[in-house]
Design goal:
Blueprint (H helix, E strand, L loop, with lengths): L6 H12 L25 E5 L4 H6 L6 H12 L7 E5 L6 E4 L2 E4 L4 H18 L3 E5 H9 L5 H4 L4 E5 L3 E8 L2 H6 L2 H19 L11
Parallel strand pairs: 1-2, 1-5, 5-7
Antiparallel strand pairs: 3-4, 6-7
The protein binds uracil (URA).
């Protein structure tokens, strides 16, 4: 794994190293490693759970239905997607085949742990001002297995990662959970995601929480 690279060159090296990752069994069935994407020096890193079916085929994070919902939520919160580095706690798609469909499976603690060095590398290279984690898997990957998103979503919390010291993270719901919410409550779930992302935006360029 790349040790002390800087800027996009370092990210390119890490992406290339990760494309050959065999640290857990998920590489066997997935089409490819889906590494993070976005500016090499983004102020914000958004961390999802794992690539979905469309991301696995495209090799890019958040290009499917959850990504489109995330785009709308970021936009409503005043965050420019092109300014954000998007990645996942686990970088291979985990699924079960049912006929011709590939059904998402939740990654295990061991798989999340095996993938963590890639996330640490991304954090160390991008050096975001803030992270936002989407859903329980990504939040627990950074904040520990006892973290409960229902209790702490939208809060600014500290976590530490090797090589980057202590950083701030705002956990929120996963856009897929908004998509799974029954239609009569979906707008409410979407608005709650936007409200959390507004907390994130307040720490961004021009945000009210920005120092100075
Ligand atoms: N869900 C995620 O958590 N990440 C993606 O990249 C796509 C869907």
């Amino acid at each position: 794994m790349t040790e002390n690279p800087a800027g996009s060159e370092g990210l390119d090296d890490a992406r290339s190293d990760a494309s050959e990752c065999t640290r857990c069994p998920l590489h066997r069935d997935a089409s490819q490693t889906v590494f993070g994407a976005g500016p090499a020096r983004a102020w914000l890193m958004v961390v999802g759970e794992q690539p979905g079916d469309q991301e696995d085929r495209a090799g890019e994070p958040f290009v499917g239905p959850a990504g489109r919902l995330l785009d709308r939520a970021l936009d409503q919160a005043g965050i420019v997607r092109e300014d954000v580095y998007l990645t996942n706690a686990v970088k291979h798609f985990k699924f079960e085949r049912r006929g011709r469909r590939r059904i998402h499976q939740k990654p295990t603690v061991a798989e999340i742990r095996a993938c963590r060095p890639w996330l640490d590398t991304e954090v160390r290279l991008v050096r975001p001002r803030l992270l936002a984690t989407l859903g329980a898997t990504a939040s627990q990957a950074l904040l520990g297995p006892s973290f409960r998103i229902t209790r702490h979503r939208g809060e600014v919390l500290d976590f530490s990662t090797p090589g980057s010291g202590t950083l701030s993270v705002v956990p929120t719901a996963h856009p897929s959970s908004v998509l799974r919410t029954p239609p009569e409550r979906r707008d409410e779930a979407f608005d709650a995601l936007v409200a959390d992302l507004r907390v994130v935006a307040s720490h961004g360029p021009g945000g009210r929480a920005e120092p100075g």
